[in-house]
Model the fold of this input.
Amino acid sequence: MTHLECSVCTRKYEAGKVWNLCECGGPFLVRYDLAKLKESWGKEALKGAVTSMWRYSPALPVEHSESIVSLGEGMTPIIEAKRTGARIGAPNLLIKDEGLNPTGSFKARGLSCAVSMCVELGLKRLAIPSAGNAASALAAYSAAAAIEANIFMPQDVPQSNYIECKAYGAKVTLVDGLISDCGRIVAERKQAEGWFEISTLKEPYRIEGKKTMGYEAAEQLGWELPDAIFYPTGGGVGMIGMWKAFAEMEAMGWIGPQRPKMIAVQAEGCQPIVRALNEGAEVSRFWEDATTVAAGLRVPKPLGDRLTLQAVRESGGTAIAVSDQDLVDAGIRLAEEEGIFAAPEGAACVAAAERLVAEGFLKSTDRMLIYNTGSGLKYLEAYSTRFPRNAAEETDKLGGLITPR
Ligand SMILES: Cc1ncc(COP(=O)(O)O)c(C=O)c1O
Ligand SMILES: [Zn+2]
Done:
């Protein structure tokens, strides 16, 4: 790592210090000396490397390996979804199953990296606003690092997220509002409490962990990127991270200039990126009354909207919204056909792929890679609406279902 660079005004900041946002309010991107790295590190070095995302550690910000807090995140499988692919007219459909990560979602990658950097920088009290899965991951990695985690999440987060955070010993506050309200509370209280705010893009290192989804896909696919990538986009950090990973790999000569069409998949009840793309805007506007069972997509005004929209546009991709009905249907059909029980966010991508093939935006011969960002097991309230066991009992449990506000 050489320095941090503001993604808006390109101002440079020193590495090895504690930073949140640039003075201009822009999120940071971590920069490396890739020309030097190219000399000392190559694809061949991966042969004997650890089977977690830390196999890419030369392109990650941690300087001292003792700082790394790992629970085995990354190196999730890419599965050929033959039956689902055939049904939706996309026979080359692949699914990267991020549900197999620690805490059941891809958030493990970002928080493994960010908490490792907190260890390296000596930060001991962390706070996070979260839609749910990031909170679970922070709680787990903080427990592993013996660091304090203060968690703020909407009171109607999936029950799994709440129970996990409590079990990992985090300090949990349930907020009557959305992730944006949680963010405001953390921002207001952090100074007085002495918390380091580890919220998405307000600290520079989560994106670095998430970018390993891009490195891994390239490695697992023999350094040939797919024609299209479907990514369930809430904060957009995974999309931004992968886009960055592709540029880094090209700079090191690992891949060529061709890029997949990056497809941002959102929920009908919260689609600020889709609206911004359709309006030709550079940034999104706050999505009022956000509501969806895909809790990770309920981000009404993502901080990284500019970078997400850039990746979508530069790649010739698009953004598409799926209804809750369609994404839950897609999740159940995927489970039946492939044995993959996806989070509603990942399931939304299957519905999106079906539509984009039907509309002719993608060719049926295209190789498509869907990121299933989490396990369906974390969303039992959402899926239990389709499999009620006892009507009265299920209604009680639906207290945890995401409701409009
Ligand atoms: C399962 C799942 N998928 C997708 C997302 C959205 O992630 P990103 O911020 O990278 O867009 C989240 C965020 O909470 C999530 O939990
Ligand atoms: Zn700036």
About this structure: The mean pLDDT is 95. Residues 6, 8-9, 11, 22, 24, 26 surround zinc ion (ligand 2) (CB under 6 Å).
